[in-house]
Amino acid sequence: MKVVSTAVDIQALSLTYRRKGLRVGLVPTMGWFHEGHLALMKEARKRVDKVIVSLFVNPLQFGPNEDLDSYPHDLDRDCVLAEGVGVDLLYAPDTKLMYPNGFSTNVHVRGLTSGLCGGDRPGHFDGVTTVVSKLFNQTLPHVAVFGEKDFQQLAVIRRLVQDLDFPIEIIGHPIVREKNGLAMSSRNSYLKADEMAAALSLSQGIKQAQKLARNKQEVSVQEIRDAVAHEILKHRECGIDYIEVVDKTSLQPCSVVNSQSILLLAVKINSRIRLLDNSQIIGS
Amino acid sequence: MKVVSTAVDIQALSLTYRRKGLRVGLVPTMGWFHEGHLALMKEARKRVDKVIVSLFVNPLQFGPNEDLDSYPHDLDRDCVLAEGVGVDLLYAPDTKLMYPNGFSTNVHVRGLTSGLCGGDRPGHFDGVTTVVSKLFNQTLPHVAVFGEKDFQQLAVIRRLVQDLDFPIEIIGHPIVREKNGLAMSSRNSYLKADEMAAALSLSQGIKQAQKLARNKQEVSVQEIRDAVAHEILKHRECGIDYIEVVDKTSLQPCSVVNSQSILLLAVKINSRIRLLDNSQIIGS
């Protein structure tokens, strides 16, 4: 596996691959790889000839009081893990090369970004769509793979790609979970042992919601939200950012729960660790 | 010459060219071709194997009281002219295909867009950078050629390409003028016979400024602006939107006039026809 640190180099490599008729895949990440990341890389590996993984902790998508400075990182560890699943190129650019003096461009997606994580983290999705536009143009992939844990992010990126006509197929990969149900996330590394029970309440809340939907002829959005909130608020460490049942594509609130609905959760553990989870409630 | 009307088709054609190792050039236009456009096409013809000209009157870059509906158009005429200079593909998409229901993305360049035409036409440059991002991804060129008459637009696009890492070389082409000095523009077709003298005052103002700079050891920005305004305001049809001497790259106002300075003019004729012109005052 080759490690590349400049846009010029990665662009030249990708163009060389493309000229040879090889298909290129991108997995954008912020590093500190877990099985969720590795599953995205394996998914790309199945689909393309050359797998590029970008590793960039993007300051634009962090708010002033968020965890930019403490975000976990270990490039050597990540290199070993990525190489182990057959990644061809690890692209780890420097922040000053990504955003040199005079950088002035912002990519904004309206609508989909205004609620949910966009409501809690103003400017977050502009940071995401701006860096993803850059990464797409730097790595020039045929295919890009994103995790469904960041469900709103995936919807926003699909919109971005459609609106700006990026010639890229976007693949969403299902959430990868620990055996105990916890959705994998680099931020799980912040959890102390005595916070794990609280962290598990997200996936347990989802299970409760699914059980409710199975056992009742018709279940209302409010019943689902109440059941999930009840499960989460058993833990005094938990503060709810949102519990929403929305349409899978538009992310608009659902009036009824059906196979097009998705339950989205954001919960803060001890006001410190923001965890996301999501799931369909009724199978499609 | 082939005429193509969908993004899917133009993207597929460009990718086919690229796979064959051919170089692709784009000339983005709003149609109603004049010698200025044809010069851009010839410039592209010299540089690449396949020349794509896009023809799209982009509603996003017009304000509510501007000339979107009256903008001149004649596809058959434009096809003959483009074919005459060796264009390979004319890409003329439909507005509903460019901006279908649900379109939600905006590309914004800060700073460079805030004054000059950006001050007079709020939202104009967001329209430009958004459509140009789309056209780049639809046509996937190696090279794109823009006219220097829209000097601020060219600076904004250079910034966009640098910031978002589009793998495209941007070529600026000098203004093409009528024999009488008038900078070529599709909007010149709005001019009535008795408005021509007023329209010529822009290029005459520039000549006065250059003469002043030649004849004086050192000329101030204010002297330049006064001389140009004097020339233009000889004509009661003229209203000045701006006369500015700015740095060629940053577009920030110059304190002294030198070879890095450019004189930028925007003048309205009878409050109806907005004309642009620009030139260096002191040769580099």
Name the structural class of chain A: alpha/beta
Low-confidence stretches of chain A: none
By CATH, the topology of the largest domain in chain A is Rossmann fold
Mean pLDDT of chain A: 96
Distance between the termini of chain A: 39 Å
**Strand-and-helix sequence of chain A, N→C?**
EHEHEHEHEHHEHEHHEEE
Shape, per Cα inertia axes of chain A:
globular
CATH class of the largest domain in chain A: Alpha Beta
What oligomeric state do these chains adopt? Answer: homodimer
The amount of beta strand of chain A, in percent, is 15-25%
Share of helix among residues of chain A?
25-40%
What CATH architecture of the largest domain in chain A would you give? 3-Layer(aba) Sandwich
How many helices of chain A does DSSP assign? 9
Number of strands of chain A: 10
> What is the radius of gyration of chain A computed over CA atoms, rounded to a whole number of angstroms?
19 Å
The overall number of domains of chain A is 2
Quick one: CATH superfamily of the largest domain in chain A?
HUPs
The neighbouring-strand order within the major sheet of chain A is: 1-4-3-2-6-7
Main sheet properties of chain A:
6 strands, parallel
